[in-house]
Design a protein that fits this description.
single chain; 308 residues; alpha/beta; 7-stranded parallel β-sheet; two-stranded parallel ribbon; 9 helices; 38% helix; globular
Length: 308
């Protein structure tokens, strides 16, 4: 198939291009002008700023894709400018997605596969949720509420893209592996090594992790499948922070995370991280296994988190 990968210099986008070409697909990589030098080896490289509607229409038209893959974020700048990274990513998930849907339709694409997140569920009565649990669009923290609202808009645009453009949303778990925050040289690892990543309260918040290689494999499966809808793409081992954070620190050969009262955590870590460590839900991957025929080759974070 002819496949266009947007966000092709990203953590998932870059290896995805190679994986698709290895399977015989003709792959175009869409990148911004400033990222042109980092573009992966592809059959074609097209350049556009996702927030420039006319540029996106032109670039997608040039690529003539049958399948469009949306991997666009601005999270590369997360540790230099977190507010800016979240704001720009929000625009890419709303304005950028709208431009991409319009361009995919105009170019005659038949399928759109988009990146979402598996850790934005609203409070629920079970520790591990499926895809039917609503997103936390009314979170009490304005920053996180805005982020989740942008995610919800991305999903709405992709799934409502019409009968001629089948939409698939992949909600990835918390990514680990090369070039992620959890890599040994990543921002989260550096915070743990410096003793700046404490464990609030009993650390009951549950995380569902996903290795980058499994994210790539799931995306290939979604591209080659006829299935539509929303899928959690996570490993098989949702775990509370009280388990994964000490394990991660030991693997990094860092200090044991100190425990702090949960009520102090928002001042030290911010609302979002406190929520993730104390109250978040894990995500079940049953639907992706059954419908996409995918399963993680790294079924547990215990075998790799902090080791790369």
């Amino acid at each position: 198939m002819r496949v266009l990968v947007t966000g092709a210099t990203g953590v998932i986008g870059h290896p995805l291009v190679g994986a698709l070409r290895a399977r015989g697909h003709e792959v175009s990589a869409l990148v911004r002008q400033g990222s042109r030098a980092r573009a992966p080896e592809a059959d074609q490289v097209v350049v556009a700023d996702a927030l420039d509607r006319e540029a996106v229409l032109s670039a997608v038209s040039d690529a003539r894709p049958e399948v469009v893959v949306h991997q666009m974020t601005a999270l590369r700048s997360m540790y230099d400018d977190p507010p800016g990274a979240f704001a720009q990513t929000g625009r890419l998930r709303t304005e950028g997605t709208a431009h991409l849907v319009e361009a995919a339709r105009a170019a005659g694409a038949r399928r759109l596969v988009a990146q979402s997140i598996a850790f934005a569920a609203a409070p629920a009565s079970v520790p591990v949720v499926d895809e039917d649990v609503p997103l936390y669009v009314d979170a009490p923290d304005p920053g996180w509420a805005s982020t989740v609202q942008a995610v919800a808009e991305l999903e709405r645009l992709v799934l409502g893209s019409g009968p001629d453009l089948a939409g698939v949303v992949l909600r990835y778990g918390s990514l680990y592996g090369p070039r992620t925050a959890y890599a040994r040289n990543g921002g989260t690892a550096q915070a743990v090594l410096a003793g700046r990543f404490p464990l609030p309260g009993d650390g009951a918040g549950i995380m569902s992790f996903l290795h980058v290689e499994d994210a790539v494999a799931a995306t290939v499966a979604a591209i080659e499948s006829d299935a539509t809808g929303v899928f959690h793409v996570t490993d098989d081992d949702p775990a509370p922070a009280a388990q994964w954070l000490p394990h991660y620190a030991r693997t990094l050969a860092g200090p044991s995370p100190r425990t702090i009262p949960a009520e102090l955590a928002p001042r030290m870590l911010g609302w979002y991280m406190t929520h993730q460590l104390t109250a978040a839900h894990g995500a079940s991957n049953d639907r992706a296994r059954t419908t996409l025929g995918w399963k993680p080759q790294r079924p547990s974070w215990r075998d790799g988190l902090g080791g790369e």
